[in-house]
Amino acid sequence: MQVSQNSVVQFHYTLSDENGQLESSTNQDPVLYLHGHQNLIPGLENALADKKAGDSFSITLAPADAYGERNEDAIQSVQVKHLMGAKKWKPGMVAVVNTSEGQRQVTVVKVGMFKAEVDTNHPLAGKTLTFAIEILDVREASAEEIEHGHAHGVGGHHHH
């Protein structure tokens, strides 16, 4: 079965930038996602279309097809208590903050007693990224998955 609209795809990935490997799923659960619902960055979702279980491939994405270009005006001041993910913050650390659009990753630029300056660009914005993909499984999505807009199961979306 080929990857197409509303198929659920399970894959392992290794992500690298021009400086080397950043992260890999190979020692964890594979990623599970519902195709055609903007659950992945556009360039990666496009590359997965029409592939099938057992396929392995590598794709290099320009920032525009990955996490976008960096916005240099993206520095914001937030209260330190709103940063989630660590007890003590240092510049360069990635924190999670709640925004009106849901949770976002931000990079700490400067930390004071009560306020921190954070860079709201995605940590991978402005980078050319290479994904090495190994597709493990492709299946039809259930009606419930299509209705919810995401895959259910290990590596997919969990309802709390």
Write the layout of secondary structure elements.
Blueprint: E1 7-17, E2 20-24, E3 31-34, H1 42-48, E4 56-61, E5 75-79, E6 94-99, E7 102-111, E8 115-119, E9 129-140, H2 143-148
Antiparallel strand pairs: 1-2, 1-3, 1-9, 4-9, 5-8, 6-7, 7-8
Subcellular location: Cytoplasm
Domain PPIase FKBP-type: 6-78
GO molecular function: peptidyl-prolyl cis-trans isomerase activity
Verbal overview:
This protein has 160 residues and is mostly beta strands. The radius of gyration is 18 Å and the shape is globular. The mean pLDDT is 92. The chain has 2 domains: 85 residues, Chitinase A, domain 3; 45 residues, Thrombin, subunit H, CATH 2.40.10. The longest helix is centred in the first third of the chain and has 7 residues. It has 2 helices and 9 strands, in the order E-E-E-H-E-E-E-E-E-E-H.
State which percent range the strand residues make up. Answer: 35-45%
Domain count, please report it: 2
H/E element order: EEEHEEEEEEH
Q: Give the fraction of residues assigned to helices.
A: under 10%
Q: What is the level 1 CATH name of the largest domain? A: Alpha Beta
Kindly provide the radius of gyration, computed on alpha-carbon positions and rounded to a whole number of angstroms.
Answer: 18 Å
- CATH topology call of the largest domain: Chitinase A, domain 3
Tally of helical runs? 2
Helix/strand class: mainly beta
Main beta sheet strand tally, sense and closure: 5 strands, antiparallel
Average pLDDT, rounded to a whole number, is: 92
